[in-house]
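ok posting inputs for the D-xylitol-5-phosphate job
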Amino acid sequence: MNHLIAPSILAADFANLQRDVEMINNSEADWFHVDIMDGMFVPNISFGFPVVKAVKKYATKPLDVHLMIVDPDRYLKDFADAGADSITVHYEACPHLHRTVQAIKQLGCKAAVAINPATPALLLQDIIADLDMVLVMSVNPGFGGQKFIEHTYTKIAEVKAMSANANPDLYIEVDGGVDSHNIAQLKTAGANAFVAGSSVFSAADQPAFISTLKHS
Ligand code: DX5
Ligand code: ZN
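and the output
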């Protein structure tokens, strides 16, 4: 399976959001990564439904919605209605994770679970077979532009090993500090979907940089 690139619109220019959505449409990117932060699960607030719907209106590629919110069950249907194609919830935010994953699937969305840097991969053992994707956080969630945590390579290899028998078609996505210098090593470790925010949007030639990531 060729790897996927998911630019994070958290790093887009919100005053020129349509322009940036169309840049991604016309690039080699595969998904739009949409970061939702509630100021509770993470110490930052990003944006809500009106922005997701605005992106959906122009996006020609799937919306990969990453919920960094407490008790995400409250809003799964709203995000599906707003246009999410996949919904990622955090392991740390879901006391009844199996129920949450089934609810996402019943809404017709791909179901994914994210783990924070300090959460062991092993905790996914009893849910990994039910998932479409695991999201390994390579920074502490809440902000774009943070430094990549090196332990992520080990964590990805652990998820890859767990999925080998239980779920060989699993997407293993990595999010935080991904750029052209670490993507090849992350791919070697077992990741096959890459979120990139500041590295994409700070590039002088954004579509060319996306192509660089896609062919790394
Ligand atoms: C961080 C978000 C990321 C963020 C990544 O909490 O989940 O998706 O947009 O941004 P960069 O690529 O700048 O680390
Ligand atoms: Zn994210």
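notes: Residues 88 and 112 are 4 Å apart (CA to CA). The first strand starts at residue 4 and ends at 7.
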